[in-house]
Amino acid sequence: MTYKAKKFDHLIGTEGFSDILLKNHFTLYEGYVTNTNTLIEKMGTTVKGTPEYAEIKRRFGWEFNGMRLHELYFGAMTKDGTARNGDTALVKKLTEDFGSPEAWEEDFRATGALRGIGWTILAYDKDGERLFNVWINEHNAGHLAGATPIVVLDVFEHAFMIDYGLKRADYIAAFMKAINWEEVERRFIA
């Protein structure tokens, strides 16, 4: 099986995201898809137990998660944004776990503003029935095992520097306006 890059061209024209930034970001994502496929192919042909095999295995998590995290990031965005409904299962859970949706958002934004590169994720641990805002420093490290990503925010520089320079908080504000809450709710319920 070969992974195919998903198309996110419908996001062109999203307020707060220049077409140049989005097109560059889509190209970067497509590179993760290509590299994931390349590593899968090499895993089948490289001699096990060699340094080359070990490096392929280590690198695979980075490329695969880079692919998936970008799909989750772009997949929960919409050009027009949607309002967060006050009476959904997710809003009730945000209130239960964070005190209010506004308190969740404040913590999510603060997590996204941490120094460094990585991802901010609202993750749901179904077994513990708990939502967490998590900082993931690298694609392949810091994930909560078994937790489902609900909202994914890319805070690597490529996601915002073209439009915002060092003003990460302004980028996060633009992202929050572009969230497709219907998709986020679907992820939570699933």
From TrEMBL:
Matching Gene3D superfamilies: Iron/manganese superoxide dismutase, C-terminal domain
UniProt keyword annotation of Membrane present: no
EC number: 1.15.1.1
PANTHER family, per database record: SUPEROXIDE DISMUTASE 2, SUPEROXIDE DISMUTASE [MN], MITOCHONDRIAL
Record key words, sorted: Metal-binding, Oxidoreductase
Classification lineage: Bacteria, Candidatus Nomuraibacteriota
InterPro entries associated with the record: Fe/Mn_Superoxide_Dismutase (IPR050265), Mn/Fe_SOD (IPR001189), Mn/Fe_SOD_C (IPR019832), Mn/Fe_SOD_N_sf (IPR036324), SOD_C_sf (IPR036314)
Top-rank taxon, per record: Bacteria
One Pfam assignment: Sod_Fe_C
Residues covered by the Manganese/iron superoxide dismutase C-terminal domain: 89-187
Name of this chain's protein: superoxide dismutase
Record flagged with keyword ATP-binding: no
MF terms in GO: metal ion binding; superoxide dismutase activity
Family, per entry: Belongs to the iron/manganese superoxide dismutase family.
Residues noted as binding Mn(2+) in the record, renumbered to the chain: H25, H70, D154, H158
Enzyme class, first EC level, given as a word: oxidoreductase
